[in-house]
Specification:
Layout: H1 40-45, E1 92-95, H2 99-104, E2 112-118, E3 125-127, E4 133-134, E5 139-141
Antiparallel strand pairs: 1-2, 1-5, 2-3, 3-4
């Protein structure tokens, strides 16, 4: 090149012969990489390999919608629904067959009773005609 001028390589952005705009350089195809079988924690702990020059790096992002776990009855855990009412004084409850009721209130298992006291603690309920304090898991609210 004469006079110390540096010429631009023709392959990079050749100008159209008719005076039009320069065309963009050709795109290089990147070979697909095999999927890595690793967890998100493993992936976060590994240093990232350098991408080829000009390649666009896309990092994984968390899923847009959260997974919904299903209960055996077919209703979604965490689904927006009306919270269950906690039994309290005056409510009718069915006495369930639990370890506590089998040991201390066998005659009441399966029966329907009114709650007469609610201590609002871990063993809150006293039902009519009984001196046995019941857990919330020992009773089921009726209607």
């Amino acid at each position: 090149v004469a006079g110390g001028a540096i010429s631009k390589p023709e392959a990079a952005t050749p100008a159209a012969e008719d005076g039009g705009a320069a065309s963009p350089p050709p795109l290089t195809e990147i070979a697909p990489q095999p999927k890595a079988e690793s967890t998100a924690a493993e992936a976060a702990s590994k240093p990232e390999a350098a991408a080829p020059e000009g390649a666009v790096s896309i990092s994984p992002s968390p899923p847009i919608c959260a997974a919904v776990e299903l209960k055996a009855e077919g209703t979604a855990v965490g689904a927006t629904s009306k919270p269950e009412k906690r039994p309290t004084i005056g409510d009718q409850v069915k006495i369930l067959d639990t370890e506590n009721t089998r040991q201390y209130f066998r005659s009441g298992v399966g029966g329907i009773f009114h709650i007469v006291k609610d201590a609002k603690d871990k063993q809150p309920y006293l039902v009519e005609n009984s001196q046995v304090w019941l857990h919330e898991s020992d009773v089921e609210l009726i209607g």
